[in-house]
Amino acid sequence: MTRRLIHILLLFLCMLLGWVLGYIKVPYIELDDTFWIGIIGCLGIMGFIISLFRIWNVQKAINPDETPQSSLNVSMFKSLINYKFLVAIIIIGLISACLIAYYRTKQLNEELKMTQVALEDFKSNTNVEQQRINISLLLDLIHKLDSKPVNVQDTVEMINMIDRIVSLSSSFKINRVWDIANKVNIDLSEERGLLLLALLKTKMDSIFFNKIKANVSFYGADLRNADLHGLDLSGIDLKYAHLEYANMQGINLNDANLNGANLMGVNLNNATLVGTNLISSKLSWAKVNDADLRFAKLGRADISNSTFLNSNLFNASLIQAVLCNAVLIEANLTKCIMMATILSNANFSKAVFINSYIHSTNLSDAILNDVIIQENWILRINENNNIGVNIMLKNYQIVCDSLSIKDSIIYKLKTNTQ
């Protein structure tokens, strides 16, 4: 039984050694340390198997007539000497293989890190070279646009020029840039921002530019601090563009797509945004006074700390929008839609809420002094699962005002202290 256990132990160590050598991928064809480790490992395994059979045959041939018990006692001591020697060799081989594999893996990791650094440098150089090529193409395009007549007709040449602009815009990549002011990584395309600004400076008629706006995407364009006041950018695609602190006073953005765009701190006073897609956009700290936002889509938009003084939001959608600390004094919110809208400390003083649809919204913290409503407004907000209606009714009361507009009766919310 003891001999069998020793045989099993030796076979296990042999298998373990083979597994280790196989794990570190040896024997190897190249003439390096892994190749010689593999050769030695294979020779060791072969020598162990040959020695095992030789010991077995020699011990069996020496005393064939001995009883099993006496044969076991005589050969046990001699066999153990050979077995211990072989076990020691195998253990030393295993330890040596593990050490060599460890240092080899460490060396490979260092080489891998150096390769990654070299790859990053190559990518950076490639990006710089690609930017140079793009800028060169952009300058060439501007030169050709400036050399064309002011009134460009719908010709094959114009269509080819638009296709070229589309291809150039599509070739510009979105890069991840560290925003020092907000300390976050942002994804933007400086080249697309430059392309749009360059197109705005070229000599082209409105027909040509309208076709460009209808076909070219300025997704993720970097337009931070840009001066875009008074421009006609109706129908333009500016999804996820970065327009932080841009001057967009008096701009025309009718039916434009600004889904997910960052408009933090922009000046949109007197701007026209009829039917504009501003879903998930960021409009915090923006100035949107005297602006036309009829039918605008502001779902999930962040409008916190912004001002909409005397702005027209007729039939605008404010579903799940955030209006914390927003100022909408004298704004027109007729037929606007508010569902799960956050109105914490939002100021709606003297705003118009006639036929507005408000559902699942907390009204307890909103400032509603002198807002204009229809007669059944309280009944409607009670039916639409709104929160804080009772608190609002403690602070405000409905007053019928027949003096504001001649021959008309309007209803307002007045604070109970008035």
Q: Which spans of ≥5 residues are poorly predicted at pLDDT below 50?
A: 26-31, 69-74
Computed structural class = mainly alpha
State the order of secondary-structure elements, H for helix, E for strand. Answer: HHHHEEHHEEEHHEE
| Count of individual beta strands | 7
Number of helical runs?
A: 8
Task: State the end-to-end CA separation.
Answer: 104 Å
Summarize the amount of helix as a percent range: 40-55%
Main sheet record:
3 strands, antiparallel
Strand portion: 5-15%
Q: What is the overall shape?
A: elongated
Whole-angstrom Rg: 40 Å
Mean pLDDT: 80
Q: Order the strands across the largest sheet as they lie in space.
A: 5-7-6
Explain what this protein looks like in three dimensions.
The structure is a single chain. The chain is mainly alpha-helical and 418 residues long. Among the domains are: 2-130; 148-222, no CATH class. It is 44% helix and 7% strand. It is built from eight helices and seven strands; from the N terminus they run ααααββααβββααββ. It has helices at 2-23, 33-62, 68-147, 156-171, 190-201, 206-215, 377-383, 389-395, and strands at residues 175-179, 184-188, 337-339, 357-359, 372-373, 396-401, 410-415. The protein has a three-stranded antiparallel β-sheet with strand order 5-7-6. A two-stranded antiparallel ribbon has the order 1-2. It has a two-stranded parallel sheet with strand order 3-4. Strand 6 (396-401) and strand 7 (410-415) form a beta hairpin. It is elongated, with a radius of gyration of 40 Å. It starts with a helix and ends with a strand.
